[in-house]
Amino acid sequence: MVILFIHQNFPAQFRHIAEWLGANTEHQVFGLGDVKNIPKGYSPKGVTVLGYATPKGAGDNTHHYLKAHEEHIRRGQQVVRAAQSLQKKGIRPDVIVTHSGWGEALFLKPIFPNAKHIQYCEFYYRAENSDVDFDPEFPANPESPFRVLCRNSTQLLSLTQADSAISPTHWQKSLYPSEFHSKIEVLHEGVNTQRMQPDDHANFSWQGITYTKQDKILTYVARNLEPYRGFHSFMRSLPSIQARHPDATIFVVGGDDVSYGSRLANGENFREHYIRELGNRVDWQNVHFTGKLPYGQYRSVLQISSAHIYLTYPFVLSWSLVEAMSVGCTLITSDTAPLQEVIEDNVNGLMVNFFDIEQIANTVSGVLDAPEQYRHLGQAARNKAVAEFDLETITLPKWVNYLLSNRQHS
Predict the structure, then answer these.
(1) Residue 88's pLDDT band (boundaries 50, 70, 90)?
(2) FRET pair for 171, CA 20 to 30 Å: which of 66, 120, 210, 279?
(3) Mean pLDDT for the chain overall
(4) Cα 361 from Cα 378, distance rounded (Å)
């Protein structure tokens, strides 16, 4: 059996399943991604990793509603060329798993008509009751509803050709048009809960000082520090938190790029912007911006955390949230989807209004006042992570069964 995974940022969500199949089965496993995004030297056992040429962007005269669509078509063309190269070598996949968001699946069905085509459905954009209109500080453009319709066109064209599809959470599945729901199975990629587990003896060294779980530590993690992950609400809560806990050490993990949404017009990154906004109302000596950390250090930061903040627009659930659950962090999260699917207030976390700065500050301060009284929430969060998201016992077996039972018969 030949299995092909396609993702412009390969391995991305397909890392665990592709590597497991390559290492533990006799199936031929291929991974295809944008050559500039594949990690240097990435060559797991049993997986043939291939890159396609990075496509050009949209033309200068392309209508702005269609820029993303044109970029996706160009990417789909590059994938076709790579697929035709495989075809010439006599390689014909039985199963093809493709992220639906960037056009990579658009033209594969005619190339491999007998394959089982599976789409990974991560996020379907909506103009109302969604990330687009969620935050009044960053209001949607009046033309956003029209642009969003066009942005979804790639996914819709791909889904009409798909034999089946996967979405990581029930809420993310619910965003897709109801007529496609029967095609979509909820299947998270999982986290390694054995690797990400509590450790009362963990330590993290930063700027010559070693911190442990005995210290008063507040943590915030995002791939990039930006409003989509509530960075502005978090930052604005710091003056009140520090007023009650001037001895707290605050670690902020994440980069200065923008993963989602728009950049600031003046060229500042959001970290610089909110540092300037808050000025001397925050004791910056106790706030440490670590940037992106190696995985082991990132894990240690979570393991020593006394309270961990995770805020998000109604958007894709972050891996870091599930990993923080797995580590047993005491979680303060926004009461937004898809968090409502994994966090129950006062059961395995504490939920706050995304925009209520004082509620965020008061909730965090309450945990920092008496962290031992809230440890049971972290244990309950870990129990849920192990029961529903554990890679080895839950999600990986489901992925293997799903893929190997979904071979298309010509």
Answers:
(1) very high
(2) 66
(3) 96
(4) 19
Query: In the chain, where are the structural domains located?
Result: 2-190+391-404, 203-388
Residues 6+ apart with CB under 8 A from 386: 193, 326, 393
Query: What's the CA gap between 78 and 59, in Å, rounded?
Result: 17
Say what the pLDDT of residue 409 is: 44
Cα separation, 335 vs 338, in Å, equals 9
How far, in Å, CA of 80 to CA of 74, rounded? 10
Taking only the tens place, the pLDDT of each residue in 294-321 is: 999 999 999 999 999 999 999 999 999 9
Other beta carbons within 10 Å of 293: 17
Instruction: Give mean pLDDT, residues 194-203.
Output: 97
Listed residue (126, 199, 124) closest to 167, CA to CA: 124
CATH class of 2-190+391-404: alpha beta
Q: How many CB atoms lie within 10 A of CB 143?
A: 11
Same fold yes or no, 2-190+391-404 and 203-388: yes
How buried is residue 145: exposed, middle or buried, by Cβ count under 10 Å (0-12/13-18/19+)?
Answer: middle
Residues 6+ apart with CB under 8 A from 328: 197, 198, 375, 378, 379, 381, 382
Summarize pLDDT for 394-403 with one digit per residue, the tens.
Answer: 999 999 999 9
Question: What φ, ψ does residue 97 adopt, rounded to 5°?
Answer: -115, 120
**Angle at CA of residue 151, ends 148 and 157, nearest 5°:** 130
Task: Find all residues with CB under 8 Å of 163, minimum gap 6, and list them.
Answer: 116, 117, 118, 183, 406, 408
Nearest to 74 by CA among 161, 154, 159: 154
Contact 305, 332 (CB under 8 A): no
Structure tokens at 182: 């029967």
pLDDT at 302: 98
Model pTM score: 0.94
Q: Which residue type occupies 380?
A: A
pLDDT in tens, 318-339: 999 999 999 999 999 999 999 9
